[in-house]
Specification:
seven-stranded antiparallel β-sheet; Thiol Ester Dehydrase, Chain A; 9 strands
Length: 158
């Protein structure tokens, strides 16, 4: 499977079994499978950004952040595939292609986020990574530790 930035995928249980990080979102919730993920391909590493349908839960959080900081780049609400989705950049984490279960399919095709939203997500994600390099970590999972595990796994498999 060719993995591309801007598409939505599902992840295998195996990843969550391997990575025990309290910052990762719940694997299964209310009998549903885990969230879908907006994916960013960065060489051999993939960045997964969870999507949620719980708009009413996150709207007040976004409003609080805007009130306190003037903006909110760690959580976005945008229309994806005809309905509002919460894009949880703060919950992003690195993984490998082998942990992808399958692409999210809508109308018989893998779901691709429209370019304007994809670009906005990428800009916000790069901003959060830049803040992290400056010592301001807005990510809930320990992305450095997870990335290290993923890179070690790649090294062991080559």
């Amino acid at each position: 499977m060719e993995v591309k930035t801007g598409y939505i995928y599902h992840i295998k249980d195996e990843f969550f079994d391997k990575i025990n990080d309290k910052g990762l979102m719940v694997n299964h919730e209310n009998g549903h499978s885990r969230p879908t993920y907006f994916t960013i391909k960065d060489k051999d590493i993939l960045w997964f950004i969870p999507l949620s349908s719980k708009v009413s839960k996150y709207k007040p959080i976004i409003e609080q952040k805007i009130k306190k900081y003037g903006s909110c780049q760690s959580i976005m609400i945008r229309e994806i595939a005809g309905s509002d989705s919460v894009i949880l950049l703060q919950n992003a984490f690195p993984t490998l292609e082998k942990y992808i279960d399958h692409p999210h399919i809508v109308n018989g095709k893998p779901l691709k986020v429209i370019d304007s939203i994809k670009d906005e997500i990428l800009d916000n994600f790069k901003h959060l990574l830049a803040l992290k390099k400056q010592g301001i970590n807005l990510f809930f999972p320990d992305i450095d530790s997870i990335k290290s595990i993923m890179l070690q796994e790649l090294k062991n498999n080559n």
